[in-house]
UniProtKB/TrEMBL annotation:
Its cofactor is Mg(2+). This is Xylose isomerase. It is an enzyme of class 5 (isomerase). Binds 2 magnesium ions per subunit. InterPro entries: Xyl_isomerase-like_sf, Xylose_isom_bac, Xylose_isomerase. Homotetramer. Mg(2+) 1 binds at E232, E268, D296, D338. GO terms for biological process: D-xylose metabolic process. Mg(2+) 2 binds at E268, H271, D307, D309. One of its GO terms (molecular function) is magnesium ion binding. It catalyses: alpha-D-xylose = alpha-D-xylulofuranose. GO terms for cellular component: cytoplasm. Its EC number is 5.3.1.5. It comes from Lacrimispora xylanisolvens.
Length: 440
């Protein structure tokens, strides 16, 4: 029964011509694309922290949105009210998953024993709601960046006692993730980095982070966690330099410390921007390394130099994202809206408008990405661009059977080799625009 959003109807698909702000224009969960329904291609998740906790507070002002849901803040009654509101919200939008940090769910206690008891209580209640609705947990994680004890990091802290507290939080967050059937467990190293090398032993800190991750894997497997552990790369903010700078850096770290068999990437669009990359780049690097695990669906603002966590509306980005996902054969994880409404968008209706925006943007991106693949011109061009490696000498290079002397002799015999073929970037961008804006 509707309790918190009684003024909001069930959100349904009405098509691109609809003017109803509380309806999907492109997200039709039953629509089949390339052999799978949209809901199968796009397993969306609600971010507990932004949707149910964030009130629009920024460094210059207090919150503008009421997320009390009729209960006193910082109480277990409030924690239960957020559960009720969250499941009502997800049901009305048809969202099949949610993601959480430990302290999103409950107010932190005076001791870890008290905090853990609260987590046990609220996770029991969440499990009841999951059983009633069929909504599932995509992934869980521990917040090891907000509390002042983590000001110097969690795994990278200079305090052994803080390190133990981080381990305790991870242990309990894994317990709750397994209890709720989560498909993944995320490490976001928000403060795993440094402000200045004048007081930092980088190797010491990275070894400690790796040790903490190894202990998490061992414990998780021992309690029956069969999903992927995930790293969410981000180059900066809140630390000036974070160790998981981007996908390539994180993958190198995992391989260096023997963690690559258990970990994959959770790629966030806005974090890619902060690293100086495109969203598409981070997805491609993860995919070609066999480490594309899950996605945080948002976008940044190119005029602002921080993590704005906007709801995605740039269809170029969502199309190129879904192009990478489709070419990779899909993802094991899902699409978590690590996105928040803008500070002036502070009504209950705005919560729904924002998710409709994001879900429609990715649905349209899926439609257009499939059209790009089915059109075939991009794939054909890339194949033709590298066709010289189908020649006898090219095949020897690709098969790793050529020697440096042999290649040098070939170059001498060529004399003046032909120029490489044109990259035709503008032509390919014309194709992208043609597909994006086609009326078919």
């Amino acid at each position: 029964m509707s309790r918190f959003f009684s003024q909001i109807p069930q959100i349904i698909y009405e098509g691109p011509d609809s003017k109803n702000p509380l309806a999907f224009k492109y997200y039709n969960p039953k629509h089949v694309i390339m052999g799978k329904t949209m809901v199968e291609h796009l397993p969306f998740a609600m971010a507990w922290w932004h949707n149910l906790c964030a009130e629009g507070t920024d460094m210059f002002g207090v919150g503008t949105a009421d997320k009390s849901f009729g209960a006193p803040r910082n109480t277990m009654a409030h924690a239960r009210a957020k559960v009720d509101a969250g499941f009502e919200f997800m049901q009305k939008l048809g969202i099949p998953y949610f993601c959480f940090h430990d302290v999103d769910l409950i107010p932190e206690g005076e001791t870890i024993t008290e905090t853990n008891a609260r987590l046990d209580e609220i996770s029991d209640y969440i499990k009841e709601k999951m059983d009633e609705t069929g909504i599932k947990c995509l992934w869980g994680t521990a917040n090891m960046f907000t509390n002042p004890r983590f000001m110097n990091g969690a795994g990278s802290t200079n305090s052994a006692d803080v390190y133990c507290f981080a381990a305790a939080q991870i242990k309990k967050a894994l317990d709750i993730t397994v209890k709720l059937g989560g498909k993944g467990y995320v490490f976001w190293g928000g403060r795993e980095g440094y402000e200045t090398l004048l007081n930092t032993d980088v190797l010491f800190e990275q070894e400690n982070i790796a040790s903490l991750m190894k202990m998490a894997v061992e414990y998780g497997r021992s309690i029956g966690f069969k999903g992927d552990f995930l790293i969410e790369p981000k180059p900066k903010e809140p630390m000036k330099h974070q160790y998981d700078f981007d996908a390539a850096t994180a993958i190198g770290f995992l391989r260096q410390y023997g963690l690559d068999k258990d970990f994959k990437m959770n790629i966030e669009a806005n974090h890619a921007t902060l690293a100086g990359h495109t969203f598409q780049h981070e997805l491609r690097i993860s995919a070609i390394n066999g480490m594309l695990g899950s996605i945080d669906a948002n976008q940044g603002d190119i005029l602002l130099g921080w993590d704005t966590d906007e709801f995605p509306f740039n269809v170029y980005d969502t199309t190129l994202c879904m192009y990478e996902v489709l070419k990779a054969g899909g993802i094991k994880g899902g699409f978590n809206f690590d996105s928040k409404t803008r500070r002036p968008s502070n009504t209950k209706e705005d919560m729904f408008y924002s998710y409709i925006l994001g879900m429609d943007a990715f649905a349209l991106g899926l439609i257009k990405a499939a059209a790009l693949i089915e059109d075939g011109r991009l794939d054909a061009f890339v194949k033709e661009r590298y066709e010289s490696f189908e020649s006898p000498i090219g095949k020897k290079i690709r098969e790793n059977t050529a020697t440096l002397a042999e290649l040098a002799l070939h170059a001498e015999q060529l004399g003046n080799p032909p120029s490489p073929s044109s990259g035709k970037q503008e032509y390919l961008e014309c194709i992208l625009n043609q597909i994006l804006f086609s009326q078919n």
